[in-house]
Design brief:
The structure is a homodimer of 432-residue chains.
Chain A lengths: L4 H5 L5 H19 L4 H17 L1 H17 L4 H7 L3 H16 L7 E6 L5 E8 L2 E6 L4 H12 L3 E5 L5 H17 L7 E3 L6 H7 L8 E5 L2 H10 L12 E5 L5 H13 L8 E7 L7 H10 L3 E4 L1 H4 L6 E2 L13 E7 L1 H12 L4 E5 L3 H10 L4 E6 L16 E3 L7 E3 L5 E12 L4
Parallel strand pairs in A: 3-4, 3-6, 4-5, 7-8, 7-12, 8-11, 9-10, 9-11, 12-13
Antiparallel strand pairs in A: 1-2, 2-16, 14-15
Helix pairs in contact in A: 3-6, 3-8, 4-8, 6-7, 7-8, 11-12
Chain lengths: 432, 432
């Protein structure tokens, strides 16, 4: 149900009141969901998928309404595309829920187990985090993907969609909630914030009086930046994915070209796409020329330092800003560096802590790089575009985190959990 | 070296400048420390211990100076006792560092390892968190205990001691730093904030422009409360340890009395001490009378609900406040509840998420309690006073956390780490 601001305001109820009530109800629903049986959670996910398939016409109607408003307000075509749901996309949302149902349930898993000399048996057991707040923008499919991952990991979810997908997301939420309740879960395990008022975001970032355990922003840089700077609760996110590929003197040239073209150009808009290529200037044979030419031939704009500019007139000069830029486009910055130490110094200065790769047949150099570079993901002789929960075999992910706390790298169902210690005794008391 | 505010102010340098510089230097030192060999870190810890032993007279002189000031300002005897260092206590600090040296190095440990169908080999590898900020009060031994745990886990530490132990802690820090540098570590792996100005705490809680990854407060409730409410970086802490022991109808009475006396009275001042006893009113034989009498006989003040007050005239009435109070003293609140569900409802309402125990020979009831109660530590037939990193076999702890994120329960060297993914390939590129 979508509330108008005026409706909420009646009886003097403020947005803060509405949000605090949502928080309280989510926290309460989370308590039961935390120990819900795996079968029930899986049934809920499958029922939600069925409800999406069954309500395709209603979803499309709501989406048309959102699209009409978006076109009237002159949104860019790329934006309109992200907002659009057709049958294939709705089916993909349903399938994604079915895949999440297939994942192993992390809750209750015994992470470690040991017995103390006094006979106490200690288990470290996975538990849900509690309540996850998700703040997202135009893609309506985040509604079901994020909700599905939260339910599977035993967490209640409070979703705040973008204003432009408001109608679409509410219909999707109704389908999900219908499925969840059909399986006997409480309706409040999932809530969509019923107002477009931006104050709701600020209230969520404040944690709703302790009702939200973690915030996951899904969207562009400005959203993530606001969330990271304002949130008073932990945030799983990455601000930038300025991913580096370092081509060492020991690299196999053919393999290097193949990996670099894939890392940069397979899909330029994903966070694991390479943005800067660092090339060892100490290579006996020249690595830079064929790599730069391959990038130019593939239609990629190359911005380089002086040495790279000397390779081709087509290379544009790179500025200081380029080394910090996540292009998310067919543009790459290329720099000559003094071996692996030069590469690591550059990454230490300009990297965003997301994913960096080294290409070399010299395993000693590779291991040094893998050990010393402090990014969420470090790779040897592979494309940075593998930086993805699905490619890691972790199943669907709610995002990739670059913070060092709790969840780092792909955030899947396991990363949406906490743990507790279960101690089983036989009357032990602690000696003086 | 201890700076006076006037010294820092010269050349227009503000406290913020000093603190930001400390942050930058700690971050830089943390980078090298992150990959320092285990042997070097252990040598550093042993050398630090030697320096503490060797400088006992200087430490005692500084401590005498602090004690004189504390007595002049009329500090309570318990406070004076916490502040006092004698030979035994300095030796204990040294031994604690030697024990930390014996712990397994968590850094570099492979937490999980798997190979993808495309041949990519993925390791999840432990890494340090980075820079740990520790804010503590009167106990000078926190300086060496906390620093030792940070160094072992590869983290740089920025320490902010209490004003009353300023001289003592600075001499201890000089000893530690001397030891660390003798082993070849950078001096900036450990810093003690060189001013008593309270603004320094606020600056640390702000994270020093991203230089601090986590804050650990060590001290009383008011310190932890301030840190939790103001910190803009993650905090490992617990505000309260209102630990419950629930005595089920299935409990063995003799064992229950033994555990309750230990849980409440072994040491009343530790966070794992029991504060509330919940007794099943459905017990066929009366459990409450012998338990309450045993507590009274042991010299414990008992505050109870009506049913408990009926047991003995010595029982005082418990107010609503009692159920929320961590006495840290020989006082206990006792309540009759309607079975395990009543106990869990009480804990859900009043618990602080630290440690709760169930006493029963009925394993079904015990497992229900262990599963449903969402505290950092849940126990069956054992004393809550085992809630301690050392007793868990995790080695020394920097504290106990009740948050659900990252570290929960005892925070030892392993909990002071993060992780990264190391991906080893052979030229793999990601298919379209």
């Amino acid at each position: 149900m979508i509330l108008e601001k005026s409706e909420m305001a009646h009886d003097g109820e403020t947005i803060a009141d509405v949000m605090l009530d949502i928080g309280r109800r989510a926290r309460s629903a989370a308590r039961d969901l935390a120990t819900a049986p795996t079968e029930q959670k899986n049934e809920a996910l499958l029922a939600a998928a069925r409800n999406l398939y069954d309500h395709l016409p209603i979803i499309r109607d709501a989406n048309q309404a959102d699209l009409t408003l978006a076109r009237e307000s002159g949104m860019a075509p790329a934006y309109i595309d992200r907002l659009t749901l057709d049958k294939a996309r709705v089916n993909a949302m349903g399938r994604s829920l079915e895949e999440i149902a297939q994942l192993e349930d992390p809750v209750g898993a015994i992470m470690a187990s040991w017995t103390r000399p006094n006979g106490l048996k200690i288990d470290r057991v996975r538990t849900p985090l509690g309540v996850v707040g998700i703040i997202y923008e135009s893609r309506p499919n985040v509604t079901s993907d994020a909700a599905g991952l939260c339910i599977k990991s035993g967490n209640a979810a409070i979703l705040r969609c973008g204003s432009d997908s408001f109608a679409t997301c509410h219909v999707i939420l109704d389908c999900l909630r219908k499925g969840f309740t059909e399986a006997g879960l409480a309706p409040d395990v999932i809530t969509l914030v019923p107002t477009k008022d931006r104050d709701a975001v600020g209230l969520m970032l404040g944690g709703l009086s302790g009702a939200i355990d973690v915030i996951v922003p899904r969207g562009g840089r400005s959203l993530v930046e606001r969330v990271q700077s304002e949130a008073r609760v932990p945030v799983f996110a990455h601000l930038d994915g300025v991913c580096h590929v370092y081509v060492d003197r020991g690299a196999d040239l053919e393999e290097a070209v193949s990996i670099i073209l894939n890392a940069k150009l397979r899909r330029t808009g994903i966070c694991g796409a390479a943005e800067t290529i660092l090339i060892d200037k100490n290579a006996e044979a020249d690595l830079a020329t064929p790599i730069v030419e391959a990038l130019l031939d593939a239609g990629c704009e190359v911005r380089g330092d002086n040495a790279v500019q000397a390779i081709s007139a087509a290379v544009l000069p790179a500025t200081e800003t380029d080394w910090r830029t996540e292009y998310l486009d067919a543009i790459v910055s290329v720099k000559m560096v003094d071996g692996v130490d030069g590469a690591m110094a550059h990454i230490g200065r300009y990297g965003s802590g997301h994913t960096e790769a080294i290409l070399t047949e010299c395993y000693g150099t590779a291991e040094l790089f893998l050990k010393k570079v402090d990014s969420a993901i470090v790779m040897h002789n592979a494309s940075t575009q593998f930086a993805d929960g699905g490619e890691f075999g972790m199943g669907a992910e709610i995002g990739i985190a670059t913070g060092r706390m709790h969840a780092r790298g792909p955030v899947g169902v396991e990363q949406l959990t906490s743990f507790k210690y279960v101690v089983r005794g036989a009357g032990q008391i602690r000696p003086k």
